[in-house]
Amino acid sequence: MSTDTTIAATPPTSASAASADAAPKRRSYWSLWAKVPREFAFLILTMPIAITGLVVLATTFFTGLGLIALIFGIFIVVASLFIARGFGTLELVRLRWAGRREITRPIWNRDNREQGFWRTMFVPFIDGHYWLYLLHGMVINPIVSIVSWSLTVAWTSVALGGTTGWIWQRYIPDGRGDQDFWLYDVVVDWLFPGNTLSVDPRIGEAAFEFVVGLIFLATLPFVFRGLTLLHDVIARGVLGSWRSEALEREVAQLDASRGAAVQAEDASLRRLERDIHDGPQQRLVRLQMDLAAIERKLERDPDAARELLGEAREQARETLEELRALSRGFAPPILQDRGLAVALQSVAARSPIPVTVEIELPADATLPASIERNAYFVAAELLTNAVKHAEASGIRLTVSTRDTGATGHWIDLWVTDNGRGGAALTAGHGLAGLEERVQGLRGMLVVDSPVGGPTTIGAHIPFVPLAAGETAPLS
């Protein structure tokens, strides 16, 4: 049995990567140009799509509204609401493609039930999101798109025309002849009153247009970014989900996690009850019968009584071993007294297969007692499964914590063996029960076990670290 334990103050590599991803990135001027093609494509297509949406939605909605007294107008109104939902979803997809942060979409089927025809027909009337999508498609988006499209075309035309006009304007007759009005002359006289500057008008006009074109070209990324951001802000307010829906989603996830935890605990209790009934309980019944037989033969046949006494001693020893094996599914005293690292070393030391233990926990790790208990149980169960089913010659147990910033603190527990592989999350089996337990803690279980091995199983559990000096009872 080989045990290699490391206590480190630095988080694992995955944590460092996660922290690096969470850190804000500094944007340079040239990085804005990287998204200019996508933002231009988004902006230049905005008005055609918005006008198409306006025509389709206005036609279907007002036609259905006018025919609503004939009953089938209701179906046309519902169709217009679904069409508005489609155009709104297209806007969200286009914004994401343009490089904007993804907008959380509304929950269209909140109760996760089969809609059915009549429910599908009448839900849009009471769901405010459909009407907001209709308002966006018929009023907001057409107005905003005309402004953004006009600015996009104008800014791009001036930027490209001004910077390249000196190349192609000479080949285009302007018909101005010897006219006295030149735009560059007006600007120069306004900036420098009383100047005596004498320049060829055509050269001066070309130079003025070139400078203006450079200014528009230099500000092009900011204009495109601002116009795209305008559409993004409007979409987040009108097409995105509401805060109440985020709360509903959080409550649903908590209910699902609590249900998974209850199911996992119930399955563990049933298994424990079955193991006690099939093992120690049967042995204790046998021990009671042997003691009764010894009591009857103690006076009449001491030799037979002595033989039965030896069998009873063996029964008591085997019962004790089974009870010790069952107790490993609970938090041992060493976990409460010495902490998670020492408890994991202890469970690894009892493995009949050599286990390499790598524990990378900060020196001031303050894990809640419930997290330590569940991490110990998951590690013990994974090691037991590897011993029973993997046919491995070596196992590696790795435990570490990380702070991702945005998603909080996590404990990562990995068990890797060099066995035959083929492990899967099959319903009714041990890994499925472990997955339910981990999901009950709002974590996740990852299984990578190709046929032929190796098998790598990771349990990732979020936790809230205890404050300095704070302790929690081991419940």
From TrEMBL:
<feature type="domain" description="Signal transduction histidine kinase subgroup 3 dimerisation and phosphoacceptor">
    <location>
        <begin position="270"/>
        <end position="333"/>
    </location>
</feature>
<dbReference type="InterPro" id="IPR011712">
    <property type="entry name" value="Sig_transdc_His_kin_sub3_dim/P"/>
</dbReference>
<dbReference type="InterPro" id="IPR025828">
    <property type="entry name" value="Put_sensor_dom"/>
</dbReference>
<dbReference type="InterPro" id="IPR050482">
    <property type="entry name" value="Sensor_HK_TwoCompSys"/>
</dbReference>
<feature type="domain" description="Putative sensor">
    <location>
        <begin position="42"/>
        <end position="239"/>
    </location>
</feature>
<keyword id="KW-0597">Phosphoprotein</keyword>
<keyword id="KW-0808">Transferase</keyword>
<feature type="transmembrane region" description="Helical">
    <location>
        <begin position="68"/>
        <end position="95"/>
    </location>
</feature>
<feature type="transmembrane region" description="Helical">
    <location>
        <begin position="206"/>
        <end position="224"/>
    </location>
</feature>
<dbReference type="GO" id="GO:0005524">
    <property type="term" value="F:ATP binding"/>
</dbReference>
<dbReference type="GO" id="GO:0046983">
    <property type="term" value="F:protein dimerization activity"/>
</dbReference>
<keyword id="KW-0902">Two-component regulatory system</keyword>
<keyword id="KW-0547">Nucleotide-binding</keyword>
<dbReference type="Pfam" id="PF07730">
    <property type="entry name" value="HisKA_3"/>
</dbReference>
<keyword id="KW-0812">Transmembrane</keyword>
<dbReference type="GO" id="GO:0016020">
    <property type="term" value="C:membrane"/>
</dbReference>
<dbReference type="InterPro" id="IPR036890">
    <property type="entry name" value="HATPase_C_sf"/>
</dbReference>
<keyword id="KW-0067">ATP-binding</keyword>
<dbReference type="GO" id="GO:0000155">
    <property type="term" value="F:phosphorelay sensor kinase activity"/>
</dbReference>
<keyword id="KW-0472">Membrane</keyword>
<keyword id="KW-0418">Kinase</keyword>
<protein>
    <recommendedName>
        <fullName>histidine kinase</fullName>
        <ecNumber>2.7.13.3</ecNumber>
    </recommendedName>
</protein>
<feature type="transmembrane region" description="Helical">
    <location>
        <begin position="40"/>
        <end position="62"/>
    </location>
</feature>
<dbReference type="Pfam" id="PF13796">
    <property type="entry name" value="Sensor"/>
</dbReference>
<keyword id="KW-1133">Transmembrane helix</keyword>
